[in-house]
Amino acid sequence: MGNTSSMLTQYDIEEVQEHCSHTFSQQEIVSLYQRFCQLDRNGGGFISAEEFLSVPEFAVNPLSQRLLRMIDGLNFKEFVAFLSAFSPRATLQQKIEFIFKVYDSDGNGKVTFNDLLDVLHDLTGQFISEQQRKQVLIHVLEEAGYTKDSSLVLSDFVKILGNSGLKMEVEVPVD
Amino acid sequence: MSNPGKLITSSSELDLDRPNIEDYLPSGSSIQEPHGKLRLRDLLDISPTLTEAAGAIVDDSFTRCFKSNPPEPWNWNIYLFPLWCCGVLFRYGILFPSRVLVLTIGWIIFLSSYIPVHFLLKGHDKLRKKLERSLVELICSFFVASWTGVVKYHGPRPSMRPKQVFVANHTSMIDFIILEQMTAFSVIMQKHPGWVGLLQSTILESLGCIWFNRSESKDREIVAKKLREHVQGADNNPLLIFPEGTCVNNHYTVMFKKGAFELGCTVCPIAIKYNKIFVDAFWNSRKQSFTMHLLQLMTSWAVVCDVWVRDIISVRAGLKKVPWDGYLKYSRPSPKHRERK
User: Fold this and answer.
1) Å between A83 CA and nearest CA of chain B
2) Contact yes or no for B31 and A124 at CB 8 A
3) Mind listing the GO biological process terms from this record (chain B) (predicted)?
């Protein structure tokens, strides 16, 4: 799918569908492809960080810098795979895995206290002092039976978020 | 638990800080609202923010403002297709040449009277201004005629009074021509390259129009000063400002720049809405040159639009409001904006 032909063949669609484990319907993939081409302003077949930031609603998102590390230079297949966690058809496990990946910035499969603190920093900005953030974090960690030094793995995330009624769905506009 | 209380204060501070954007964004707050007790799961659950981000990637209201919505294809029908072909032949074969002719005649008349007026009446400033005004109105009428422009005006005609500015929404450069045809306005405009720029610096100069160049930062103050002087003068042409600062696609109005409202003058809004039956009048200056845009208009059946004077712009013309600054079309939000979020 490296080429930038303006049309998707049936074969392409099925291949992409396969790649995102059928979390999107064929129509949705066609819509996503139109959006992809729209975002890919220079037509390079991938979307650069710069191009993602040209969407102001995305650029003002507190987690945009963190997400950009995951999505800089995505081609269409990867773009769909990235968004598949937000499909209503994605399982809870997939969604939690996605959240875990956002936290786990170095990708070593462990989320440390500092990782948590970084995300919290992104979310709260300068409105809360570093000191306060640390206090809150230590407090809630201890309450949940962890300590400052424990690092969380994916199964911890599943345990913590598994029954919290996670709502993480984005509707793909299909015309 | 001492901190949730602090969390509340800071989140309400945050709201005070950016009240209008908040209304439009999905309500998924980035700061956990402590319902009773803050638990680890609430802290870890960043899904609302992520959903917002992914939602923006999939679809956002800002990009939609500047997308020229492609017309619905209606002619792929065995009965309509031959008719459409005749239409194309007629539009390009007959309408277009005759419009070019009209426009050329217009230009000849305009130039042949403008140049003498401009150079011979150097001494009589008042008379010269008056004549030039009516000549510009004339050439603009020729322009409108060259697209068979059907313009319906609602509301009173703008009058010349000191301390008043007109603000209008902006779909294309032809907004300017349509309004100019009604009364000679002084406009504040981006300096354009090419033949449009040439017109700006020669002819429109005489109307007291003010030019600026976005890329030059010093320009700002000079323009602001000129503006202030202009509105104070009693016999200057009425001032027209497009506070969106850029062309928007006829379906939305983006956030207005505040400059127009800081001059301490009466603000009279003008709303322009094009009828899309015949042609899409949105000029996407990044994709199309103005010449191409004019050609597109001249080969269409007609340009139909409504102009309302003195009424609440968006409500009147049925445009949707979005909170984005139109200037973001050219640049992206600075990290400062993100921090504040």
Assistant:
1) 7
2) yes
3) phospholipid biosynthetic process; triglyceride biosynthetic process
